[in-house]
Fold this protein.
Amino acid sequence: MIPLNLADGAPPALHGVTEAPPALDWWLLAPFLVLFGAGVLAVLFEAFWPKDSRRTVQIALAALALLVTFVLLILQVEAVGDGTTVANGVLAVDRTVLFFQGTVTVLALVSLMLIAERRDGRDAFSAQAATVPGSEEERTHILAGSQHTEVYPLVLFAVLGMLMFPASNDFLVMFIALEVMSLPLYLLCGLARRRRLFSQEAAVKYFLLGAFSSAFFLFGIAMVYGYAGSVNFGVIRLAVESGGAEIFADGNGEPLLLMGVGLVAVGLLFKVGAVPFHNWKPDVYQGAPTPITALMASCTLVAAFGALLRVFFVPFGTSAQIWEPMLWTVAVLTMVVAALVAVTQRDIKRLLAYSSVVHAGFILTAVVAGSVDGLAGAMFYLAAYGFTTLGAFAVVTLVRTRDGGQELGDIDRWAGLGRRSPALALALSLFLLAFAGIPLTSGFIGKFAVFEAAVAAGAAPLVVVGVLSSAVTAFFYVRIIVVMFFRDSEGEGPTVARAGLLTGGVITVGVAATLALGIFPGPVLDNLLPSSEPGQEPAAVMVDQVTAVPGEE
Amino acid sequence: MAVTRHHAYLAAEPAVATAADSAVLSNAWLLIALPLAGAAILLLGGRRTNGWGPLLATALPVGSFVWAVLALFELLGRDAAERSVSVPVYEWFAAGDFSARINLLVDPLSISFVLLITFVGSLIHVYSLGYMAEDPGRRRFFAYLNLFVAAMLVLVLADNFVLLFLGWEGVGLASYLLIGFWQYKPAAATAAKKAFLINRVGDIGLLVAIMIMFTVLGAVSFSDVFAAVPGAGDGVLLAIGLLLLLGACGKSAQLPLQAWLLDAMEGPTPVSALIHAATMVTAGVYLIVRAGPIFEGAPVAQTAVMTVGAATMLAGGIIASAKDDIKKSLAGSTMSQIGMMVLAAGLGPVGYVAAIAHLVTHGFFKAGLFLGAGSVMHGMNDGVDMRGYGGLASKMPITFATFGLGYLAIIGVPFLSGWWTKESIISATFGIGGTAGMVFGTAVILGAALTAFYMSRMVFMTFLGRKRWDEGVHPHESPVSMTAPMVVISIGSVFLGAFLVLGDRFAGFLAPAVGAEPHHFTVGHALTAPYGLAALAVLVLGVALAWFAYLRKPVARTAPDGNLVTDTARNELYGNEINEGLFMRPGQVLTKALVVIEDKVVDGAVNGIGAGVRDSSTGLGRTQTGFARTYALTMLLGAVIVAATLVVRF
């Protein structure tokens, strides 16, 4: 794909310039192809399927595609063994990747339930996003019952990007995955049915800042290419070990590498929302339609961290001493600043956004640990957090104002919810306690796993900061519980929309996963996550097909 | 839940039960789960379980008992050396070399307790069906009873001190709920609070002991702690030993933490029976025997145990001799008998089997006595003053017969249950030799004399002599649901001791678990040895004294003025006053001082931190302007930070 002849030496065997078409393993590519095919098909349906039944068909198609993808991923787990790369080495398929992909798929399926939920015959999306908010045209569309079934193909494309993002074994493919994932999300953010200006503002901000960060990322790729002479992760890893491509034989290539690592890091840290690249999160989470926020908070975070872990552990895995101090700083900033700012938030969606930022900080401590245990801890944390946060946002969609029935974000007006809808309030309390990391919830196990890994790797000060930050976050989680259960409602409180089958299902799944992973985490910890042998690097469980696996030499 | 390092867990591991080995043992958690489920169903099920709830709550401990019997046979089917079975129940999670899990330990010691708890506990449940038939809160009552049994089973089945502590606290909670069951009675509410508070003092001892184990010995599971004992310093073992003793004193109502037990009589009588016979007060003896290796490494702590036991034994006997309230007199008796067991447990391995054997037989006859007392009260309009009883034998023949058998057993009439096990304790105590053997042995003989006196007094005042009933009291025999358990228990009171002691059955069974040499018991020796004869002599003496004072002379309806000694005894040896002077008043002063510190220093700091967090939150929040340009600028700043930290690596 990429001509590689910077130096005179022969290109690495696996990564040569190809005259012959690449051999493609269709079987291993099938999950991507299913999603892509379903997305394309959905676009065609959008154009040709009769309007009356289009929505039903779109939902069914999306659900089916995600299910098939999940089944394919499960089937691949046994088949891949120690892992391999496909399509000329640009995508990796190993158990770590499959875990991330499987998690994203399941979370996307659950999010889809929220996206498909309708109340009073309307879903969470605007009738016709292209109309000017408040205009006559808009009213016409509302009266005509128009709806944006384009949401479903967009979600399918976004999920396709999310599956590629953590599987990329090549920086250019990773960049494409990043854009495939992000572009549909930018659109989806602007489709809210209510408070449309707010939603559009969020979408534009997200797009502008996302483009900004993509520029950083792309520029970083260029630097890394200049340093290593390749965009393939395995080749870069070897190049970093040997001090750069051959033109840097006298060892003057480091500045390029530093710039590359830094700029790529900015792009990735933006996606996970670490401080100081987090500003978009509260605004976008608040403005976007809540089902889309749920999708972003769960799936996007998992995919972004999957990619971040892969980048720092595989291509940059041998230069940990370079980036560790940087990630230390970012992790500390993230945990401290986000926790502090969250304390005075009044809006539930903004608060959950800051909460997501703090959690990103906790997971970064596992990245800093740079060990297989850290990787496993981060993987568990992400899966656990994904389900909990989906449940929390599902609850948010149900609590509404009495007049007009839009979502009621103001936490202070949630007083008395515990008395009016005890089951809902209890479920949200469970999610909040899980966020706070209280034992017997999945949040505790996740936190314990990442902090244990960080301590084992000698990052104890980071863990101290993390625990203190946890204490601060516990304050505002518990405050919500206090408001719901121990404060009488002043004036008219919120109404609680009846949880339909879909939203109820999402909350149930969230509760079940939060409890199951908190009380019986053993099966997941033991069977699904990589386990370490002493002294093993995380790259040992992340295949790149070029470098030999450490420990097997 | 044990939090242990894996590598520390390798030493002296008991045989691990496997599923293939036996379904009974590997599912030993059912022993606990059944009564716990009962408590959950009755409490959560609410009013709709009113009808069948008590029956279910009675059936579940019976189920546990059946399971325990099956487990007993499983154990008997194994070699004597392989009867300690560790049963993994639940591993919460393991991260790195860290593991948090729940394991049970089924061995002869724990299964003995399980059998006692579930058997006597089940009978008390049956009895309660009759006793509490009219009570509006009976569903709640049965739920608490189940909780009590479940907590006690956790306590004795734990394979580590932390899980034991969980059960320990569960017992404390359940006893609080049950003693204060009639919480509309101020006395009951106060008694419950008192029991709870005094138990907390003991709990602190146990808790600190566990903390020392964890920090110094690096383990909390029995096997690891005991494996670490030989390498531990004397001071550490002494500290742990004394703290464990403090814990045992709280639960077992030993001096100086005895004051709650007499007040606890405010609870319904089946609760008293449960507390005194099968659960709660036996926990302290269990703890001391279970932690035997620690005490054996700390002789001073052992002496302390014996001293506390002997002192409580005598104090309890004196209190029991002076009380006119039948339940309080029985409570004094319990103090005394438990004191005797604690003394025996302090003897080291030679005393363990004797202590536990006496505990088991005592469980039977004390349950029988309490159930009998409840039956009497049932017939006497809930009157508890023995001076208002008298001549009840003809009105309540079954109660009289079962109570009488329990009475004969507890005072140690030869060949009844109490005789066998009390003789074992006496011979073991004299057996340690030296001055200590003489002093403590004499104390036990004295305790036996007191027992004979106060129990005879109780029987004479209640069932024999002149009728002193108040007007409107029409004594009658109790319903069969109450008398049937009494009959069953009285059979145990008569024969169980012989069954356990003859042929050294119990000793041989228990010895491997507690690390004791099987102690040989010969009937002829017990009857002819000097101490055996002395025990018989004081028995006769005690009964005779009681006969002179309470049967030959008429008993006054109201208590006559006492002298200094009787006043002291009636006031429970001024235990409450001592507590108030030594602990309560200084405690109140300390609390007031702490409140001042709390208000000024702690609150100030907390509020200061809170304000600081809020201010910084507001300040940082200002960076969230809502303008995409500001955000981009922040990102640029972030990129600078990233660049800086990449170049200047710290």
In short: The two ends of chain A are 29 Å apart (CA to CA).
